[in-house]
Structures are given as structure tokens and as C-alpha cells.
Design goal:
The complex is a heterodimer.
Chain A lengths: L7 H21 L9 H34 L10 H24 L1 H7 L10 H4 L6 H4 L6 H6 L3 H17 L10 H6 L3 H8 L16 H6 L24 H18 L4 H6 L13 H9 L6 H6 L1
Chain B lengths: L2 H24 L10 H11 L7 E4 L5 E6 L2 E8 L2 E8 H5 L2 E3 L2 E5 L7 E5 L11
The chains are: A mainly alpha, B alpha+beta.
């Protein structure tokens, strides 16, 4: 097993447990807005537990690949320099944006990431509903350029951990809006509620990890609208709490489509989720066009609305 | 994998059990009550926007609904305190098995294998064709 010198996720685990208890108790006392359903919570937490096991199994390969790339690095970036931490903070967060966008817009990677979105709830336990198949999906390759640039593997692992821990606390309905300057720069509960919502206007928006600026820069930002309450889950919600179906359903469905339609296999594997060769299904883009009209409103138009 | 990993895994599994028990104790699920005709139509409109509803059947226990929309059957079934929706060919819905006041619909979806809806009778004689 590989231990990072400093693992933010391991250190934060007691905080995860205590904060979930706090959210439940405050909701029970009517002091916070949170909804928990026992089976849903069990699935979320078991997925989280399973993902740590899966991470250990594939972690060795990921670490070895990162180390190999680091040995062929362009520069040697010191872990002790403040500028290096600022640089990796920005570059890792940008990498996360790319990873997250890819994970929503291409079915092969969606098959792995969909797990995180299958809950119809949005609470702190949802944050822990993590994939079991991230290693197989290979999205970890996206972080290798950081090692090639010369960031030490431990530094990359620590920053990835910090990002994961940051993204935990934003999975809540208990926190409404934060100060305007914070909402402008950082990913917040409000922004991430939009990301988890299945309302047409909210689909495929707010991919940010820590900084929401990437969504604003690349045109994928959508503010939470008071008149459109978030409806959580996926476009076609799961009708089961079977953990194996939750973990693998999209992989199985994708493979079945590819086998049924071999001539269109590439489209079913690497097309956007919902793509079909005969147009019998809908992608997020098609749903938006159907529900919102052919011209999806721009950010200023949405804010004005 | 060393012993510490398995100790950590066992502790985490125990923590999961405790958290699920607390969530069950709190009884703070979504307050969605059983479906009635109005709620069912609202839900169908949300899940299948713009679809014409020729007829709607609401489960006698309020835990689901079924609608005919042309050649399609629109199905709503409960999942915990939420709902899932799927569409299947109308003919498939008509041919579904109906036993003990329950229709069992094969949704042919790995993520939603089947839906069971309590109805007084099935299929409806006037819309079976």
C-alpha cells in the first residue's frame, strides 16, 4: 500500500463522519435544511467505502505511472516553494475541471462518474458516493502532465486530496448563499447544487472543483435560480438501491449498446451520454434544446430571467 | 495491503452502519406523500415534458403511476422517498403480468429492472388496443 506523506482525505475522515451526524441532527431538530433517506445514505456511504478499496487496488499503477513520468520531467519544481503550491493549486484545479467536464460529456467516462450523481438527495453523504471504476476509466492520466512539468508526485497527490476535501462540504442544502465575492471565485454549495440537479437548465453545468472561475471562463457556469428549485439525480433516475447495479449499470448498458450496434459502437462508447445512432434517445444538449428552446440562454440572459 | 488497512476498513464499515442507523432514526426523508391524480400528472409532466397524456392510472397505494401517451406507456415508480420514470411500448404494458392486484412491468433497463404498481384491474378494456 502506498502512503502519501500527508493525506488530506485520511485526516479529514473523522470530520466527514462528525459533519454528517451534525447535518442529520440539525435537520432532525429543524435547524438545518437536509433530507436523508436510510437506503440512499447506505448506498452513498458504501460506494464511498468501496471506492477506497478500489483506489488501493489501482493506486499502485497510478503511482508508478506518475513516478515514471516524473523521472522524465521537464523541470524540477521544489515542494518547499510557495509559488510552486500556488501553481499546482491552479493547474490541478484546471485539470480537475477538464476531467470533470470529460466525465459528463463522454459516455465512457460518464460510466464511471455517473455513480456520484445517482442519489436523488443532496447532502453530505452524497459527497462520499464515489466511483469504484475511476482507475479503469483512466482519467488519472489527465494528471500526468503535472508530473511531466516537474511537480513531485507527492505534491500532486496532496493537492488532489485538498481538492477532494474542499468538494466535500459543498454537498449540502443547509448552506444557502455565501458572500458575493466568495460565490464569484469559489465553488460553493449553491453552484454545486446546480451541478447535481437534473432540471434541463442545470444539466452539464458547473464542473468546477475549487474555483468556479473555470466555468465562467469556459461558458459552463449556471447560477442557481430561485424560481427553479434543484431536482437531484440523473436524467433517468435509478429505480434500485442494489449497490452492484448502482456501481456498474452504465458500463453494462454501454457494453450492451456497443454489442447490439457494432457499427455504431464508437458513438455509444465515446459519444455524449444519451447519444443513439437513430436519435431515439436524448443527450443533455437535446433535452436543453427541447425544454428551453433551440437557443439556450446565455449567462446574462439567465441572470436577467 | 497491511493490517492497518484492514483495521481502517473495518472501522469505516462500522461508521457506515452507525451513520445509516442515525439517518434512519432521524426520519428526515423527503415529505413526498402518496401520489394522487393531481400529483401524478404533475410528476408525469416534469418527467415527460410536453407529452400528451391519454389516460393516467395512479397506484391504489399512491406508490406509482402509469400513463398512456400514444404508443407509449409512461411509468412512474417510487424509489425510497423519490421516484424513477421510464417509458416502454404500450403493448408491453398491456401484456404485463397482473397478479394479486399488482402489475409487474419489465422496464428492460439495468438501472431500473422493473416496476410494480398496485391497480384494481389491468389491462384497461377501452385502451388495451
Amino acid at each position: 500500500m502506498i502512503h502519501a506523506a500527508f493525506d488530506p482525505v485520511t485526516l479529514a475522515t473523522p470530520f466527514f463522519i462528525l459533519s454528517i451526524i451534525l447535518e442529520i441532527v440539525l435537520a432532525r431538530l429543524g435547524k438545518a435544511d437536509a433530507r436523508y433517506e436510510a437506503k440512499d445514505t447506505a448506498v452513498s456511504l458504501t460506494m464511498g467505502l468501496g471506492s477506497t478499496v478500489a483506489g488501493v487496488i489501482t493506486g499502485g499503477i497510478v503511482f508508478a505511472a506518475t513516478l515514471w513520468v516524473y523521472q522524465h520531467r521537464l523541470f524540477t519544481i521544489p515542494m518547499t516553494a510557495i509559488w510552486a503550491w500556488v501553481a499546482i493549486f491552479l493547474l490541478e484545479d484546471l485539470t480537475y475541471y477538464v476531467f470533470h467536464r470529460l466525465s459528463h460529456e463522454r459516455r465512457f467516462w460518464w460510466a464511471s462518474h455517473v455513480n456520484h450523481h445517482t442519489s436523488q438527495h443532496y447532502n453530505l453523504s452524497t459527497a462520499l458516493r464515489q466511483t469504484w471504476t475511476g482507475g479503469v476509466a483512466g482519467t488519472w492520466l489527465l494528471w500526468l502532465p503535472l508530473a511531466w512539468l516537474g511537480f513531485p508526485p507527492a505534491m500532486i497527490a496532496i493537492q488532489k486530496g485538498i481538492s477532494l476535501v474542499y468538494q466535500y462540504w459543498i454537498h449540502t442544502e443547509a448552506i444557502k448563499r455565501l458572500p458575493r465575492w466568495f460565490e464569484a471565485v469559489f465553488n460553493t454549495p449553491s453552484h454545486h447544487r446546480v451541478h447535481h440537479a437534473r432540471n434541463a437548465i442545470y444539466l452539464d453545468r458547473n464542473y468546477a472543483g475549487i474555483l468556479i472561475i473555470w466555468d465562467r471562463m469556459f461558458g459552463t457556469f449556471q447560477p442557481e435560480l430561485d424560481g427553479v428549485p434543484c431536482n437531484y439525480g440523473v436524467v433517468k433516475n435509478l429505480a434500485t438501491f442494489n449497490i452492484l447495479r448502482v456501481a456498474f449499470h452504465e458500463w453494462i448498458a454501454m457494453a450492451a449498446d456497443a454489442v447490439r450496434h457494432p457499427r455504431h459502437a464508437l458513438g455509444y462508447i465515446f459519444g455524449p451520454p444519451g447519444w443513439s445512432h437513430d436519435g431515439s434517445r436524448e443527450t443533455s444538449h437535446m433535452i436543453k434544446a427541447r425544454v428551453l428552446g433551440p437557443k439556450v440562454p446565455t449567462e446574462p440572459e439567465r441572470e436577467a430571467a | 495491503m497491511d493490517d492497518a488497512f484492514f483495521v481502517q476498513l473495518a472501522a469505516s464499515a462500522a461508521a457506515v452502519g452507525v451513520l445509516v442507523a442515525i439517518a434512519a432514526w432521524a426520519k428526515i426523508a423527503k415529505p413526498a406523500g402518496p401520489l394522487d391524480e393531481h400529483k401524478a400528472r404533475e410528476l408525469l409532466e416534469f418527467e415527460f415534458p410536453g407529452r400528451r397524456l391519454d389516460a393516467v392510472w395512479v397506484a391504489s397505494d399512491g406508490a406509482g403511476a402509469l400513463a398512456r401517451s400514444g404508443g407509449l406507456a409512461l411509468v412512474i415508480c417510487t424509489v425510497g422517498d423519490g421516484f424513477a420514470a421510464r417509458q416502454i411500448p404500450w403493448a408491453q404494458a398491456v401484456a404485463a403480468s397482473f397478479k394479486n392486484g399488482k402489475i409487474c412491468l419489465d422496464l428492460a433497463d439495468i438501472a431500473a429492472p422493473r416496476a410494480t404498481i398496485s391497480l384494481p384491474s389491468w389491462p384497461p378494456k377501452d385502451l388495451a388496443a
